[in-house]
Amino acid sequence: MNDPIWSLYILRCADDSLYTGIATDVARRFSEHQAEGPKAAKYTRGKGPLKLVYQKVVGTRSQASKEELRIKGLSRKEKLALVGSCEEELNR
Q1: Alpha carbon of 32 to those of 1, 5, 80: distances in Å?
Q2: Residue 85 in this model has a pLDDT that exceeds 80
Q3: Which domains does the chain have, with CATH numbers?
């Protein structure tokens, strides 16, 4: 049985804050956040509209979790630099 491929993503909230998460299907997870239902992260509820500003395929869940922890440890300035490198591609 094949293990799912995990990705890391960053959302920009309406208040300009950044939310970092991991998922096997980023499009589905983004929709869950936007719907603000029970599957949405508490942090993103009421902070829409949300915008997907960064996405990176990582590999296993373990690798994705480690990368998520690393990104969450970055300063806002470092996160914005990371987002800036990817945001243009996502908006095409």
Answers
A1: 27, 19, 24
A2: no
A3: 6-90 (3.40.1440.10)
